[in-house]
């Protein structure tokens, strides 16, 4: 859901010759819109490269140049451009440029979350996915390529995209002939990066933008392109001619103090010469396109481009006295109203739609395989077709994962002697909330990758690296989500009231989650509240495990000290295992099911930013793992501004001459989050009196010593000695030990956080997990295997 060029990639071509074919195709096509060789010759060359056979004689020299380019030794880097010219004269003199285009949707959240209802949000997300995963690859004829399964499933639709849209005279009639599947580097997560013959750079960029606009009407999109010499694929941006003013390594080393040069090339923990080498790769071309992308997205005119500006986005005037759609944004043109003769002609509550919102709702119904009430759209008379065979549900993909992977997900429904096909999608957040304990609460999970930009800058050198990296990230992200849902959830039987709303006479079983999007390294989910943190933790752990299993390229050679990084010490950490260089940070909002989705999304984004900031801070201590920030919001009016202000103003106590106290401990590392859930489970299993939980939380605000005395007083009054021991081992010893090894004191319920230097004095900040435990307590189930026959009692009455 972000606009980064690099983190939204997915490998679409597994053939090891795909980049070779792409570069040969562009050079063989030439600089004009008409190919310099017959199209049949280009296709023969492509087929020969696929099969490892002899290419046509007329294209041999170009193919040899590409193979020479790709066979440049990995450690080779010229000290001067004269050296590069002398070593590879044919490549240097090659005047034919290779086109490179980057584009996709922008302001995605604005488009997806402008509606208040889940069906519209689901449809908006599915429509953007269809454009990015099917429509744009259809430009390249990907339905004929085995590495594009979603296009293969929608072959007829892909042909229609080209024949009925792309090839129309008023659109881009020559473009489809110039495009082949191997040209795509990646296409997912709302973005596409692809090669193309140089003459079609502007046409392809315009086609990408126009497709998004015509299909969504209101979604923002942007696409830019550039033309580059073959050697620039390997060595980054190069000058057209060599002279005394040419900037290269020698001139760079003489101008290290220049602020602009330092900002462009410098990298932490890297010497100057290595930083220059790491910058001069294919990644520099992608970076140039990213800069142009931002300029055009902001409405600015690009140099050396005659393309029309996009500073005037689509606008739909709404007269104040006209009926508006459900989002109160545009003029409504239809009402999905049921007729007395046929109730299936409409939708519940008889909503009003503009054409843009009608498309969202209709695609949302297709994505959820809801065939009950589509007559309203057919009756409206719209000419737009959604491409039903090209819209794939996330639940379809999840069920395919279940089919391919051993699991116990369907165990409960099989015990009822029912077939898994009985399980349907959740149609509303109320149905997801029904699966939570207590009922009526859901959680929004928003996860995003960490250190992606740093990894790309250091490790990604060429288009092949981009393809492999993007495939790995997309695959790891998707599988980590499915693994977490499989591990912590199971089909849920709806209560009778919700069953009646579906007008079903049979029991209704649902998948109790909603996948809003999985794109690149982005994840947005809605899940039952009581499973949210466990799911978030598993997603983060699985993401790292999946990447580590893909090879040494993702293993970090840096070790960290768990005693300094993690605040939870109840479980020993195996320190000889290698860290993953990449991880995920996650924001989790636990809230009531009736919380407005747009408001919940904003808060979850804030939690994600907080978690990512914490992960960035921990990288200074060589910790590269995931982090999670969460908030339990019992009422919409709980936070009036933003989460940061709410915490700093309401949950931090300090004053002149007083110790600084933080009444919360979020964000957490994944290890700490596991410890927090274990500690909450201990309190639940020990049946710690809820009144005391809340009383201790209230006493935190009275100061450090007061809270310590009251906590110890309450713990010692517990008649259940086992509960006392559990609290000591699972809470006090695990969380609240002083940092000094020789200090046998007891800080519970506090932890010493850090030392703030104030002049010549050092001031310790204290924090506590107790408030977080209290917030989570209602969502923790008592363990089934816990034997605790006696209820905990107090020796004396509460004070």
From TrEMBL:
<dbReference type="InterPro" id="IPR013407">
    <property type="entry name" value="CRISPR-assoc_prot_Cmr2"/>
</dbReference>
<keyword id="KW-0051">Antiviral defense</keyword>
<feature type="domain" description="Cas10/Cmr2 second palm">
    <location>
        <begin position="442"/>
        <end position="617"/>
    </location>
</feature>
<dbReference type="Pfam" id="PF22335">
    <property type="entry name" value="Cas10-Cmr2_palm2"/>
</dbReference>
<dbReference type="GO" id="GO:0051607">
    <property type="term" value="P:defense response to virus"/>
</dbReference>
<dbReference type="InterPro" id="IPR043128">
    <property type="entry name" value="Rev_trsase/Diguanyl_cyclase"/>
</dbReference>
<dbReference type="InterPro" id="IPR054767">
    <property type="entry name" value="Cas10-Cmr2_palm2"/>
</dbReference>
<keyword id="KW-0547">Nucleotide-binding</keyword>
<dbReference type="GO" id="GO:0000166">
    <property type="term" value="F:nucleotide binding"/>
</dbReference>
<protein>
    <submittedName>
        <fullName>Type III-B CRISPR-associated protein Cas10/Cmr2</fullName>
    </submittedName>
</protein>
């Amino acid at each position: 859901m972000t606009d980064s060029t690099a983190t939204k990639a997915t490998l679409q071509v597994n053939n090891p010759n795909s980049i070779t074919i792409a570069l040969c195709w562009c050079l063989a096509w030439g600089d004009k819109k008409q190919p310099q060789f017959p199209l049949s010759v280009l296709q023969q060359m492509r087929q020969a490269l696929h099969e490892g056979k002899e290419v046509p004689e007329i294209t041999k020299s170009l193919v040899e140049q590409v193979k020479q380019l790709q066979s440049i030794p990995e450690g080779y880097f010229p000290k001067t451009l004269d050296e590069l010219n002398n070593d590879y004269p044919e490549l240097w003199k090659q005047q034919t440029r290779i086109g490179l285009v980057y584009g996709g949707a922008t302001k995605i959240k604005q488009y997806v979350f402008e509606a208040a209802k889940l069906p519209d949000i689901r449809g908006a997300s599915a429509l953007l996915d269809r454009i990015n995963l099917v429509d744009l690859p259809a430009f390249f004829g990907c339905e004929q390529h085995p590495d594009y399964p979603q296009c293969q499933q929608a072959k007829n639709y892909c042909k229609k995209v080209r024949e009925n849209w792309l090839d129309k005279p008023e659109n881009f009639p020559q473009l489809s002939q110039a495009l082949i599947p191997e040209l795509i580097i990646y296409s997912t997560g709302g973005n596409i990066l692809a090669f193309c013959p140089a003459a079609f750079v502007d046409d392809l960029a315009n086609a990408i933008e126009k497709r998004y606009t015509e299909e969504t009407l209101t979604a923002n999109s942007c696409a830019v392109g550039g033309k580059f010499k073959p050697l620039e694929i390997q060595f980054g941006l190069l000058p057209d001619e060599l002279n005394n003013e040419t900037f290269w390594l020698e001139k760079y080393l003489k101008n290290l103090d220049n602020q602009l040069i330092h900002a462009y090339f410098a990298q932490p923990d890297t010497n100057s010469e290595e930083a220059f080498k790491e910058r001069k790769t294919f990644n520099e071309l992608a970076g140039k396109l990213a800069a142009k992308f931002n300029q055009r997205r902001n409405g600015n005119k690009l140099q050396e481009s005659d393309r029309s500006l996009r500073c005037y986005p689509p606008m739909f005037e709404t007269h104040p006295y006209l009926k508006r759609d459900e989002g109160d944004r545009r003029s409504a043109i239809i009402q999905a109203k049921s007729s007395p003769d046929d109730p299936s002609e409409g939708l519940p509550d008889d909503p009003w739609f503009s054409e843009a919102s009608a498309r969202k709702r209709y695609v949302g119904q297709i994505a959820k395989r809801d065939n009950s009430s589509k007559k309203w759209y057919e009756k409206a008379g719209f000419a737009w077709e959604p491409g039903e065979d090209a819209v794939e549900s996330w639940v379809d993909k999840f069920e395919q994962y279940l089919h391919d992977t051993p699991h116990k997900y369907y165990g409960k429904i099989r015990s009822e002697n029912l077939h898994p096909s009985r399980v349907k999608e959740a149609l509303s957040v109320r149905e997801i909330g029904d699966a939570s304990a207590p009922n009526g609460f859901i959680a929004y999970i928003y996860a995003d990758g960490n250190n992606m930009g740093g990894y790309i800058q250091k490790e990604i050198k060429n288009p092949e690296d981009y393809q492999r990296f993007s495939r790995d990230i997309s695959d790891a992200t998707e599988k980590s989500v499915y693994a977490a849902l499989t591990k912590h959830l199971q089909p849920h039987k709806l209560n009778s009231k919700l069953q009646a709303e579906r007008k079903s006479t049979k029991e209704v079983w649902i998948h109790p989650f909603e996948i809003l999007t999985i794109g690149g390294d982005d994840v947005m989910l809605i899940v039952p509240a009581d499973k949210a943190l466990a799911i978030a933790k598993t997603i983060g752990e699985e993401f790292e495990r999946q990447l580590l299993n893909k090879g040494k390229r993702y293993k970090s050679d840096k070790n960290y000290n768990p005693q300094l990084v993690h605040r939870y010490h109840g479980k020993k950490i195996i320190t000889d295992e290698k860290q993953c260089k990449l991880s995920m940070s996650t924001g989790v909002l636990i809230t009531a099911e009736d919380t407005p989705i747009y408001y919940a999304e904003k808060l979850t984004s804030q939690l994600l930013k907080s978690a990512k900031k914490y992960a960035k801070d921990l990288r200074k201590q060589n910790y590269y793992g995931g982090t999670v920030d969460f908030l339990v919001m019992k009422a919409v009016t709980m936070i009036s501004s933003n989460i940061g202000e709410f915490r700093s103003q309401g949950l931090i106590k300090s004053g002149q001459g007083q110790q600084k106290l933080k009444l919360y401990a979020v964000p957490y590392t994944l290890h700490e989050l596991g410890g927090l859930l274990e500690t909450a489970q201990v309190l639940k299993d020990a049946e710690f009196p809820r009144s005391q939980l809340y009383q201790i939380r209230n006493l935190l605000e009275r100061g450090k010593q007061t809270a310590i005395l009251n906590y110890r007083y309450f713990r010692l009054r517990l008649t259940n000695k086992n509960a006392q021991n559990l609290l000591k081992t699972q809470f006090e010893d695990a969380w609240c030990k002083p940092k000094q090894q020789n200090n046998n004191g007891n800080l519970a319920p506090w932890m010493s956080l850090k030392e703030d230097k104030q002049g010549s004095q050092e001031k310790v900040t204290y924090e506590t997990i107790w408030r977080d435990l209290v917030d989570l307590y209602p969502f923790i189930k008592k363990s089934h295997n816990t034997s605790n026959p006696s209820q905990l009692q107090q020796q004396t009455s509460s004070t």
